[in-house]
Amino acid sequence: MRLLAEIREVDRRVPKRLAAEVAPGLHRALSAVEETAERSKLWIGAAAVMACAGGWRGRRCAVAGLAALTVAQLVSNGVCKQLADRPRPPKEWFPHDEAEDRPDSSSFPSGHTAAAVAFTAAITPTWPLAGVLCAVPAALVAVERVQSGAHYPSDVAAGAAVGLASAWLVRRAPRLILRHGL
After folding, report:
1. 90-105 pLDDT, tens per residue?
2. Is residue 154 a contact partner of residue 10, using CB atoms and an 8 Å limit?
3. Largest Cα–Cα distance in the chain?
């Protein structure tokens, strides 16, 4: 019970603070990164660059990243949001107009974060430098989702967990299938 109370307190305090204290330049940069990540454009673009310029390693990363992203989107948006039905943070917590332009779907979990983390985590073991480069916008997307009023911090954390689990599953599925003869 105490842990849940602490999570609720963080979910209340952090979005208000981020919305009030983020400098206008950083706010614009976060919004630009989120816009490129919308509908997975950023990750599809990264996969295309890796596949075209990265040889066998780039193609392997592109396939793994897009597969993990797809699993994460299905789990977060297709299953979890349907079950959770959590309202978005109150609009009055946010002094900017981005809180007006947010989805009507459940807040829990963050599908943007799930996709970003899934893609990044799936490519990192094969191409660590590409993973590091993708981790920067992935982290910015996660921060932006809270700062903009679209999600609570716990939504973003849950999205990250879905993303990590999706990447793990995609990277392990071929071995599991071969081992168990499925």
Report:
1. 888 887 666 667 778 8
2. yes
3. 56
